[in-house]
Amino acid sequence: MSPASTIEGLRQAQRAKGPANVLAIATEVPANYILQEDYPDYYFRVTNSKHLPHLKDKLTRMCEKSMVYKRHRGDSEQESQSVYVYGTVT
């Protein structure tokens, strides 16, 4: 047996016998989101950093210059309260 026929046999064995089917096309988008324009207020409220207005101004400029419209979250703010409290188990 020549090497070419062995390779061809492998290729034939690996091929599908019928046409390809697309079973589903979808995009999963979480229901919870934060608009990019509201994100600096949200972030500084959640992290208790309202006393740092110069950083909030910088984050606001970054959010304005980015092309992101909204930020999606996997959970709601009510579901993940322990994330926002320093030292708690998440």
UniProtKB/TrEMBL annotation:
Which superkingdom heads the taxonomic lineage of this protein's source?
Eukaryota
Q: Residues annotated as region Disordered?
A: 71-90
Pathway field: Secondary metabolite biosynthesis; flavonoid biosynthesis
- Keywords, A to Z? Acyltransferase, Flavonoid biosynthesis, Transferase
Q: Where is the composition biased (Polar residues)?
A: 79-90
Which EC numbers characterise this protein's activity in its record? 2.3.1.74
Domain Chalcone/stilbene synthase N-terminal as annotated: residue spans: 10-73
Q: What class of enzyme is it?
A: transferase
Drop me one GO molecular function for this one.
naringenin-chalcone synthase activity
What InterPro entries has UniProt attached to this entry? Answer: Chalcone/stilbene_synt_N, Polyketide_synthase_type-III, Thiolase-like
Name of one Pfam family that matches: Chal_sti_synt_N
Q: Which GO BP terms apply?
A: flavonoid biosynthetic process
Q: What does this protein do?
A: The primary product of this enzyme is 4,2',4',6'-tetrahydroxychalcone (also termed naringenin-chalcone or chalcone) which can under specific conditions spontaneously isomerize into naringenin.
What's the protein name? chalcone synthase
- Which species does the entry assign this protein to? Zostera marina (Eelgrass)
